[in-house]
């Protein structure tokens, strides 16, 4: 007897079946997304091209919105920005697939809805993305495939949580539940009134190494791939932190496409890590002041402080020449 791996009908806590909006210019992609959403138990609300949806009457979004945007045209980006605003307000779950060439423009359109962004995905990746949406819905009964999706999401969250905890431990004097910066009672090295208001240099906060040192570390890490399978050393979170630390030292902005390349893993995986690290307050999204449709990624101040303490403790200059 063949096992049934389809989802139960997707219903919210009140028992109403969840709906889906499918938007894609490529006919075969639109057909695949429609078929997969229906198989997952969603009720179809709209299924059309981006242009048709933009020109049609304003309709309510589905609980799930599947979008495929292969080309970053002005009209397509305008629609994505509208979907971001409407999805963020309505609480809709967005899954957006795009290409590497359009990634920066597409990424810049989303600041409110926290979509899953997939880069040049296979059909299986879209199915997994739908599974993640289902895993976030409370009181939803799933079969075998849903449990696997839940475990995958939990493992990723746990990994990022452990990274955040390690970075916090690198900052001395941290209190439980605190961040990298806080006001505390003056230390014994502090001089009060009548003592020249001098502060001892003993507790002076270290700074990040110069960019050349960090780039040398990155180069040494990448050199391992010439001798070993790259997957043996896959550590996207650390590679992301190193690349952003070097950019911070160089006073350069980093676009999401560049950061995905630096992560050394498939772009969709890198985007997932970036999103988790932003949620964990390790990274921040910075809007381009000259173009609101573009956004950059940077280290949060507390992350930069933790990295500086880490490099000071292990001796970054010594590591760079190993």
Structural write-up:
- It is a single chain.
- This protein is an alpha/beta fold and 322 residues long.
- It folds into 2 domains: 19-142, Rossmann fold (3-Layer(aba) Sandwich); 207-320, Orthogonal Bundle (Arc Repressor Mutant, subunit A), CATH 1.10.10.10.
- Helix content is 46%, strand content 14%.
- It is built from 12 helices and 8 strands.
- The chain has helices at 27-39, 50-55, 74-90, 103-108, 123-135, 144-169, 211-223, 236-250, 256-263, 267-279, 301-314, 316-320, and strands spanning 19-24, 43-48, 64-69, 93-98, 116-119, 254-255, 283-288, 291-299.
- Helix 3 (74-90) links the parallel strand 3 and strand 4 (93-98).
- Helix 1 runs parallel beside helix 5 (123-135) and helix 7 packs antiparallel against helix 8.
- It starts with 18 loop residues before the first strand and ends with a helix.
- The relative contact order is 0.11.
- This is MarR family transcriptional regulator.
- InterPro entries: CheY-like_superfamily, WH-like_DNA-bd_sf, WH_DNA-bd_sf.
- It comes from Qipengyuania mesophila.
Instruction: Estimate percent helicity.
Output: 40-55%
Instruction: Please give the number of β-strands.
Output: 8
What class do helices, strands and sheet pairing give? Answer: alpha/beta
Number of helices: 12
**Number of domains in the coordinates?**
2
